[in-house]
Amino acid sequence: xxxEQTNNRQLAYSIKQAAYLTSLGKTRIYELVREGKxxxxxxxxxxxxxxxxxxxxxxxxx
Length: 62
Hints:
This protein is α+β, with helices and mostly antiparallel strands.
């Protein structure tokens, strides 16, 4: 099965990646999740932040 990415974008980021990409700390990322400003999904033991919610936060849509 082949999975195509739109514009080579990731679908989700780890907490560490999200913190790095936004220049925010991991604690702030978790706060934004609790505030409902970022969407976190669990896949097994991993927590992933959806790329869509991260882009919306940065673009000021949240």
